[in-house]
Fold this protein.
Amino acid sequence: MELLVGLLSAAIAAIISLVVAAISYLTNKNALQAERDRFEQELQRNMTTKLYNARLEIYPEAIAITDGLRKSRMGSQAETISQEYFSNLLIKLDQWHSTKAFCCCLPALLKPFINCESS
């Protein structure tokens, strides 16, 4: 009888230990996943902020290059606009893009100019 009680006590202790270990594992796994998600969100926010700051540094130059394409400017300089004018503009934009701008530029930003160059 004592042997049976000893075995039963050991079995109950083993089952309880396994349940506690399983609960601890799941809790730690969930905590690590939540921490990883928080870290990734923070990293995403930091990278987005850095990208926006870099764009704020480089976009004014592109705006200055393309300033002549504004409707108000196009109307006032209609007689000076030629194929050479647009070719020079594309060359300047390409030079601008070959700096660090290529890392920060949205593809949609340059697509109209690339299409214009190929036509």
